[in-house]
Specification:
The structure holds two protein chains of two kinds. By secondary structure, chain A is of the alpha/beta class. Chain A has helices spanning 40-47, 90-100, 106-115, 130-142, 160-175, 187-193, 211-218, 230-239, 259-268, 283-292; strands at residues 2-11, 14-24, 29-33, 55-60, 75-78, 148-152, 179-184, 196-201, 204-210, 221-226, 244-246, 251-255, 275-280, 328-329. The model of chain A is unreliable at 295-332 (pLDDT under 50). Chain B has helices at 26-38, 41-74, 90-114, 116-123, 127-161, 170-198, 201-220, 228-237, 239-247, 261-283. The chains are: A alpha/beta, B mainly alpha. The interface between A and B is large, with 68 and 50 residues. Chain A: This is Multidrug ABC transporter ATP-binding protein.
Chain lengths: 332, 286
């Protein structure tokens, strides 16, 4: 459990983190989301006692970071992948960390094995690819087998296989009852990993909500239809009171209907369908809308739980949604 | 093992590390720093080059001096010199200082350069402990290596030049070995402290080498009468002059320090800068 209370950091006149209060609970993956420069890394550095807060506190299981007896056994962090001495071997980079917290040397081999770096354990880490560097950073976070794990942008620069591996690793670690706190600027990535979501923009708390709630509240679902008898289909839908939006490329989009209902309707009227699919508007877009106006949202940073940013409901003007990459299929 | 996404399930228990937790202390930090310093190649390089320079210059100068003295004694001139042969150790000590400075700065500034410092301080949030461990490990390593090398050089020099030079006293022996080792190790410690303050390898090495060599060079060109006192001071207290003073019983320049005194001066300066490094490291964001 990590608790932040009124955490504030100013650099000169610029406020990087502004009265941030939230809790990170054990057993779930908590996503920490915000656009670049929102203050995510500064917040994480303050959590680890690397930066001194201007005001406010961070408590880890009720204690200040500095008061943890052997911190690596409570909390492991991946801040940036290259935060290792490149001239040192992967093994020795981990060994010196282990020694400072009296972690048995055997554990170094274990974590290297866990992240798949055993074959290059004796190689200098400066020759590592970005993906290998991330794995080494994750190995160092896991070294003390800690209760809390913090990952700052762990999927940055990873190949699809590496991304998949990190996702599953985080979920597995959370399932063991650990507290997982992971930052990202990619909503789509968070949607696949996180159970709980904390969104910040310009250092302020914008949302502290479960992923399921966030999706429900911020995504517009609609049905996409394609037919060689487009005119007839449109008439049928209109006749049944549905609002039909022409989305280009001969497809129609219908809000507020299920695929079952529309499929049955088409069958009753003998309309041939080439496509009938449920679509969900991209969460990325909902997230961008939420953070774009970050400045306007004051006073939502102090409520620790259930603080719901009054972010605009997703709703671009009908017909603007012709970008084939923006909507994601519901089944995905 | 995997929890389904989008369905937050409160785990029945919070995970607790199976590795027993005790309060970490300086000993753990020392072990960690020892692993760090022995596992980078720059340590081997700087110390290796330092040993070679000390041996080559110390013995080379002694050999040349011995040869020229013998040549003179065959001409029937007075052969004996008043000083002992140990003073030739100075010629290896000056370039050795550059190696020690580099290693001292790199010991901490490379952590800032690579970002390793964040990992280090996350593992050991007591910053004073980290700096203390680095300082102790660095000082002991450099002191041991330089003292052993200086002792080898001193023994060889006395063997080469001894018959035509004064017999070194016990105090001279001690200063030429442990004294020289301590002086270089302190100079390295000063570099380490400066590296902590500047947090940039190239910057801190440049400042330290400037501090080592510039006072003499600047003094050399202070030809004006009006600057005479400044020139005198620079010549007396420049680090190379202090190294020479370490080898002699009498002040070699004016009424400046001699014998063990240069070591005490350097120790004082290092203590002050190291104190500043501790204070700043504790208060600064990483």
């Amino acid at each position: 459990m990590i608790e932040l209370e009124g955490l504030t950091k100013r650099f000169g006149t610029k406020t990087a983190v502004d009265h941030l209060s939230f809790r990170v609970r054990p057993g779930v993956v908590t996503g920490f989301l915000g656009p670049n420069g929102a203050g995510k890394s500064t917040t994480m550095r303050m959590m680890l006692d690397l930066d001194n807060p201007t005001s406010g506190t961070v408590r880890i299981d009720g204690k200040h970071y500095r008061d943890l007896a052997e911190p690596l056994k409570y909390i492991g962090a991946l801040l940036d992948a290259k935060a290792m001495h490149g001239g040192r071997s992967a093994y020795n980079n981990l060994l010196c960390l282990a020694q400072s917290n009296r972690i048995p040397e055997a554990r170094v081999g274990e974590v290297l094995d866990l992240v798949g770096l055993t074959p290059v354990a004796k190689k200098k880490s400066k020759g590592f690819s970005l993906g290998m560097g991330q794995r080494l950073g994750i190995a160092s976070a896991l070294l003390g087998d800690p209760e809390i794990l913090m990952f700052d942008e762990p999927v940055n620069g990873l190949d699809p296989e590496g991304i998949h591996w990190i996702r599953n690793l985080m979920k597995a670690l959370a399932a063991e009852g650990r507290t997982i706190f992971v930052s990202s600027h990619l909503m789509s990535e968070m949607a696949l990993t996180a159970d709980h979501l904390i969104v910040i923009g310009q250092g302020k708390l914008l949302a502290d909500t479960s992923m399921a709630d966030f999706i429900q509240q911020n995504s517009r679902s609609f049905v996409r239809l394609r037919s060689p008898q487009q005119e007839r289909l449109r008439d049928v839908l209109h006749g049944n009171g549905f609002i039909v939006v022409e989305a280009g490329n001969g497809t129609l989009e219908v809000d507020g209907a299920t695929t079952e209902k529309l499929g049955e309707l088409a069958a009753e009227n003998g309309v041939v369908l080439h496509e009938l699919s449920a679509q969900r508007a991209s969460l990325e877009e909902a997230f961008m809308q939420m953070t774009a106006g970050a400045v306007e949202y004051h006073a939502h940073g102090t409520d620790v739980h259930g603080a719901q940013a009054p972010g605009p409901r997703w709703g671009p003007p009908p017909g603007s949604d012709s970008d084939p990459h923006a909507p994601t299929s519901e089944g995905a | 093992m995997t929890a389904p996404a989008h369905q937050p399930t409160q785990a029945p228990y919070a995970y607790v590390s199976p590795i027993p937790v005790r309060r970490a202390h300086l000993g753990d930090a020392l072990a960690s720093e020892w692993t760090k310093i022995r596992s980078v190649r720059s340590t081997m390089w700087t110390l290796g080059v330092m040993i070679l320079l000390m041996l080559a210059l110390g013995l080379g100068v002694a050999a040349i001096a011995a040869a020229s003295q013998r040549a003179m004694s065959e001409d029937g001139q007075a052969a004996m010199v008043e000083e002992s042969a140990l003073g030739f150790g100075f010629f290896g000590m000056l370039p050795a200082a550059i190696c020690v400075i580099t290693l001292g700065v790199l010991t901490i500034a490379s952590e800032y350069g690579t970002g390793m410092i964040r990992t280090t301080l996350t593992a050991c949030p007591s910053r004073g402990r980290v700096l203390a461990a680095k300082a102790i490990v660095f000082f002991l390593l450099v002191f041991t290596v330089t003292t052993v090398t200086a002792a080898l050089v001193a023994v060889a020099q006395v063997a080469i030049v001894g018959d035509i030079a004064a017999e070194p006293t016990a105090s001279e022996w001690l200063r030429a070995t442990a004294g020289a080792g301590a002086y270089l190790a302190l100079l390295g410690l000063l570099s380490l402290a400066l590296g902590t303050l500047i947090r940039h390898s190239a910057g801190a090495i440049t400042v330290m080498i400037g501090l080592l060599l510039l006072p003499l060079v600047v003094g050399l060109f202070m030809l004006s009468e009006a600057l005479e006192s400044v020139r005198e001071w620079l010549f007396t207290y420049a680090i190379p002059s202090q190294m020479i003073a370490l080898y002699s019983d009498q002040p070699p320049f004016g009424d400046g320090p001699a014998g063990w005194e240069p070591l005490f001066i350097l120790a004082g300066v290092t203590a002050v800068v190291l104190g500043g490094a501790f204070a700043l490291l504790n208060s600064r964001d990483v």
